[in-house]
Write a sequence for this structure.
C-alpha cells in the first residue's frame, strides 16, 4: 500500500505549535524513519497519518484514496500505530485475550485468533506471560505485546513511535527482524525514533522534522 | 500576583450558597431566580462556561435522558416535565457554579482554601483531584481511539459486542488513572509534601475594598434569594 501525506497542516490550539506543509510518500514495503528533536512534530505527524488527529488542511491518501472521511476503525485496519506509551493500547485482563479480542469482534473464528496470537507471542518471546495480567508486565513486555496486537490484524502499514524504548539488545534484534519480515510481506513502515543506529538498520530513507517543518527527504 | 478578579473566598461563599440553594429547592419555578443569579454571576465574572459546556458535550445526552426519565417516572406528564426541568435547572446551576471556580488558577483556589483554615493536605488533594478529571477524560478518549485503531468499528458491532467493547475501555482508563495518582503521590512525597504540619505561603490573598463589597453583596443576595424562593415556593407551588 502506498501512503501519501499531502501538504499536511495541523496546529495545537493550546500551544500554537504547528506542523506545516508536510508532504511525503511511503511506498509498499518501504521503511521510512522520521527523525527530529523532542517536540519537533514527529508523533503529531504519525497521529495525522493514523487519524488520531485531524489535519486542518492537506490530505492523507492510502493507495490514492483520501482517508479523511474514513472511520478510525477502517483506518486502523490499514495502518497500525504503536503508541509511545504502550499501556494505553492494552485493554484485556490477560495478554492472550488482549491479542484475540479485536479480531474476534471483527469476526475471526476464536480458534484461529488464538492460534495466531500464540504464534506471535512465541515470536516475541512472550509465551510465558500469555495468561498474565497486561498491567503487571514490564514496559518492554507491554511494548512487544502492543506490537503483537497490531500485527494480529495484519495491517498494510505500521507507524511505530519509539518502538525500541525499554527493549534490551536481544528484543531489539527480534523487533528489527520482525520489521524486515513485515516489509518483505509488503507492509510499509513509518519509524519514529531517536535511536539513529536502529533507524539506519531498519529504514533506507530518513525524513527530518524541525519545528514542524519537514526539511529533507 | 492576583489580578482584578474577586477574591476566591467570596466566590467560594457564593458557590456554597448557590449550590445549597439548588440542592434544597425542590420546585422548578423557585429555581429560576437561582439560575438567573448564577448565569449573571458567570457573565460578570467572565467564567469559562462555554468551554465547560463544550468539554461536557458528551454528557448532554445522559443529562437529558435523566431529565426525561424523571419526567416519565413521575406518572403525571405535566408534573413529570416540571420535575425534569427541575433536574436540568439544578445541573445548570451546579455547572455555572463550577465555571465560576474554574476561572481561577488551581494554586489560587488552594491558597483560598488554606486561608479558610482547611488543612493544606486536604486543599491540595481537592485541587489535584479536580486536575485529574480532564486527564481522566483524555485517557478515555485516547483508549477509545487506540481501540478503534485495532480495526474495531463500534458502530458496526451488535449491541452486546459493543457493550463488551466498552468494558475493555475501563481497564486502561482506570489503570492509567491509578498509576498516575500513585506516581504523583510519590513525587510529592519525595519533594517533602506533608513533612511539616504548617506551611508558609508565597502569595497570600488579601481582601480588598471591592472584595468586601462583593462579600456584603453575596450575603444580601442570599437573604433576598431565600425570601424570594420561599415566597415563590409557597405562593406558586408549581413543579
Amino acid at each position: 500500500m502506498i501512503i501519501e501525506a499531502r501538504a499536511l497542516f495541523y496546529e495545537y490550539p493550546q500551544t500554537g505549535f504547528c506542523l506545516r506543509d508536510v508532504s511525503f510518500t511511503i511506498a509498499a514495503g518501504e521503511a521510512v524513519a522520521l527523525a527530529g528533536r523532542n517536540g519537533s512534530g514527529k508523533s503529531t505527524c504519525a497521529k495525522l497519518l493514523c487519524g488520531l488527529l485531524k489535519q486542518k488542511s492537506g490530505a492523507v491518501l492510502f493507495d490514492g484514496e483520501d482517508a479523511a472521511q474514513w472511520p478510525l476503525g477502517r483506518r486502523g485496519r490499514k495502518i497500525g500505530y504503536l503508541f509511545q506509551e504502550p499501556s494505553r493500547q492494552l485493554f484485556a485482563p490477560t495478554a492472550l485475550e488482549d491479542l484475540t479480542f479485536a479480531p474476534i469482534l471483527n469476526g475471526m473464528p476464536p480458534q484461529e485468533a488464538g492460534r495466531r496470537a500464540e504464534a506471535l507471542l512465541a515470536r516475541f518471546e512472550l509465551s510465558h506471560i500469555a495468561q498474565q495480567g497486561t498491567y503487571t508486565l514490564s514496559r518492554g513486555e507491554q511494548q512487544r505485546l502492543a506490537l503483537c496486537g497490531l500485527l494480529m490484524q495484519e495491517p498494510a502499514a505500521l507507524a511505530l513511535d519509539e518502538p525500541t524504548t525499554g527493549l534490551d539488545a536481544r528484543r531489539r534484534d527480534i523487533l528489527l527482524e520482525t520489521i524486515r519480515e513485515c516489509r518483505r510481506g509488503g507492509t510499509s513502515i513509518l519509524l519514529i525514533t531517536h535511536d539513529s543506529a536502529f533507524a539506519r538498520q531498519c529504514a533506507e530513507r530518513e525524513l527530518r522534522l524541525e519545528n514542524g517543518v519537514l526539511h529533507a527527504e | 500576583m492576583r489580578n482584578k478578579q474577586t477574591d476566591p473566598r467570596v466566590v467560594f461563599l457564593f458557590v456554597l450558597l448557590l449550590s445549597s440553594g439548588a440542592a434544597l429547592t425542590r420546585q422548578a419555578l423557585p429555581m429560576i431566580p437561582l439560575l438567573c443569579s448564577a448565569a449573571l454571576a458567570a457573565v460578570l465574572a467572565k467564567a469559562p462556561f462555554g468551554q465547560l459546556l463544550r468539554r461536557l458535550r458528551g454528557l448532554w445526552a445522559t443529562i437529558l435522558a435523566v431529565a426525561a426519565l424523571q419526567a416519565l417516572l413521575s406518572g403525571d406528564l405535566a408534573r413529570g416535565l416540571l420535575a425534569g426541568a427541575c433536574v436540568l435547572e439544578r445541573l445548570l446551576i451546579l455547572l455555572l457554579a463550577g465555571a465560576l471556580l474554574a476561572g481561577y488558577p488551581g494554586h489560587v483556589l488552594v491558597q483560598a482554601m488554606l486561608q479558610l483554615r482547611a488543612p493544606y493536605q486536604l486543599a491540595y488533594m481537592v485541587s489535584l483531584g479536580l486536575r485529574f478529571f480532564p486527564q481522566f477524560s483524555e485517557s478515555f478518549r485516547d483508549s477509545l481511539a487506540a481501540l478503534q485503531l485495532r480495526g474495531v468499528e463500534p458502530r458496526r458491532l451488535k449491541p452486546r459486542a459493543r457493550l463488551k467493547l466498552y468494558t475493555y475501555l475501563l481497564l486502561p482508563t482506570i489503570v492509567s488513572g491509578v498509576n498516575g495518582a500513585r506516581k504523583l503521590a510519590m513525587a510529592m512525597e519525595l519533594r517533602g509534601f506533608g513533612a511539616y504540619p504548617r506551611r508558609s505561603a508565597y502569595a497570600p490573598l488579601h481582601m480588598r475594598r471591592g472584595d468586601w463589597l462583593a462579600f456584603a453583596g453575596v450575603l444580601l443576595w442570599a437573604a433576598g434569594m431565600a425570601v424570594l424562593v420561599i415566597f415563590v415556593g409557597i405562593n406558586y407551588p408549581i413543579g
About this structure: The radius of gyration of chain B is 22 Å. Chain B is about 75% helix and 0% strand.
